[in-house]
Specification:
Blueprint (H helix, E strand, L loop, with lengths): L6 H10 L1 H9 L9 E4 L7 E4 L12 H17 L4 E4 L11 H14 L7 E4 L4 H15 L3
Length: about 140
């Protein structure tokens, strides 16, 4: 992919500017399970890790695609030695992945990631329900549920 139409990708493009999409499209297609890094336009961060969850815009996807994208983003962060990254609720808007499944997939991939970088990972979202779901997934992971 590379098209930043909806969900988090669309939000990043709208806030950070079209240069982010142009950078991503110049390197498209980006397969599910792969990740690329572009500049962040006018966002306050320096880079964006693009890790698609779908092959075509608007597709409904399984939570496994979120898992593959999270793994790809973590590996890209390690390769570039990013100390800090953030994940949002990937797949819950456009991909129609249930929030609990998306959160569980992301948290499990973070826990399985044994590389040096990133050192700090934030789980963020503009949707308070997604933030609560991330918190539940983290609690369940700590309790091995």
């Amino acid at each position: 992919m590379g098209i930043m139409g909806g969900g988090t990708a669309g939000h990043l493009r709208r806030i950070g500017g079209d240069s982010i999409q142009h950078d991503a499209m110049a390197r498209a297609p980006i397969a599910v399970g792969a990740a690329i890094i572009t500049g962040a336009g006018s966002l306050p961060c320096k880079f964006i890790i693009h890790a698609p969850i779908m092959d075509e815009p608007g597709m409904k996807v399984p939570a496994e695609n979120v898992r593959r994208a999270a793994r790809a983003a973590l590996i890209a962060a390690d390769v570039k030695q990013f100390k800090v990254i953030a994940f949002s609720g990937m797949g819950v808007d456009q991909g129609d992945v249930p929030m609990d499944e998306a959160a569980r997939a992301i948290v499990e991939e973070i826990r399985a990631h044994k590389r040096t970088f990133p050192e700090t990972i934030y789980l963020v979202d503009t949707d308070a329900d997604m933030v609560d779901t991330f918190e539940d997934a983290l609690r369940n992971a700590v309790q091995n549920l």
